[in-house]
Write a structure and sequence with these properties.
Layout: E1 8-12, H1 18-27, E2 33-37, H2 49-65, E3 70-73, H3 76-89, E4 95-96, H4 102-108, E5 113-118, H5 120-123, H6 126-135, E6 140-145, H7 149-154, H8 161-176, E7 181-184, H9 193-197, E8 205-207, H10 210-223, E9 235-239, H11 243-253, E10 260-262
Parallel strand pairs: 1-2, 1-3, 2-9, 3-4, 5-6, 5-7, 7-8, 9-10
Length: 265
């Protein structure tokens, strides 16, 4: 039986999951958090499902070796490829995945047109198709793959002219199609909210699922009597690429310096 004080493992293909990590820390400040950025293998959106499953299995084994009481896949593509596999491997271990916010977006739209910004891997997945079948029968969903955005954010670029031009090229067709609700279907994309605010009208809703994931983690831990009881904790970070690269971008995306260790996988 895990202890209340045991850590929670959070992983992503790179730095995008930091947007989810921030929501978890905001809701559950007493939890000890472990973050693995699989930067040596980013972006997952261009990799095969089998490749992603192997990476997620390796990271799950690492978290378990660290004594983690739960794991969060803070990556839409990793969730699609690996969460069912991991739940089969570890049936008694709380696992939380991501999925694009199709249900809340379908409820929020007034025009009946919802736009989705996501990686190619997420948009091509059977799970995303199933979400559309389940929740988007009465709305038109316009999807937009966004190659290049993840790599820009990984480099800590949130405001350059090149990034702005790339993002504008992805957003404009969705607005032209009449979308009044935009789904951020990748955990990297919430870091682009300030830039999006300059590109989309104020009455266009921009939705991501980081806060919902934090609430689901809270529910699972509470149901098992595993919620930590203070004091407030900081996070520990690992990267499968050069740790210095992640360390350099943390002040931009995590808003503070923090040491990063190399992932021993």
């Amino acid at each position: 039986m895990a202890e209340r004080s045991a850590p929670v493992g959070v992983m992503d293909s790179g730095v995008g999951g930091l947007s989810v990590l921030a929501e978890i820390q905001r809701l559950l400040p007493d939890e000890s958090l472990l973050y693995v950025a699989d930067c040596g293998h980013v972006p997952y959106g261009e990799k095969s499902p089998d490749y992603i499953r192997q990476r997620c299995r390796a990271i799950a084994a690492f978290f378990r070796a660290q004594g983690a009481k739960a794991m969060v896949l803070a990556c839409n593509t990793a969730t699609v490829a690996a969460v069912a596999d991991l739940r089969e491997l570890y049936p008694d271990w709380p696992l939380v995945g991501m999925e694009p916010a199709v249900k809340p977006a379908a409820a929020a739209t007034r025009s009946g047109v919802v736009g989705v910004l996501a990686t190619t891997g997420t948009l091509q997945s059977a799970k995303f198709a199933a979400l559309l079948d389940r929740f988007a029968n009465d709305v038109r969903v316009v999807t937009q793959p966004c190659p290049g955005l993840v790599e820009r954010i990984e480099a800590g670029d949130l405001s350059s002219a090149q990034l702005r031009q790339l993002l504008q090229g992805y957003v404009q067709p969705l607005l032209a199609a009449g979308c009044d609700t935009l789904i951020l279907g990748c955990t990297h994309y919430p870091f682009l909210r300030p830039l999006l605010a300059d590109m989309v009208p104020a009455d266009v809703a921009v939705i991501d699922t980081g806060a919902a994931v934090a609430r689901q983690l809270q529910r699972l831990l509470d149901a098992r009597g595993l919620l930590a009881e203070g004091p407030a904790r900081e996070a520990a970070f690992w990267s499968s690429a050069d740790p210095q690269a992640l360390s350099a971008v943390l002040p931009v995306l995590w808003h503070r310096q923090h040491p990063v260790q190399g992932l021993p996988l």
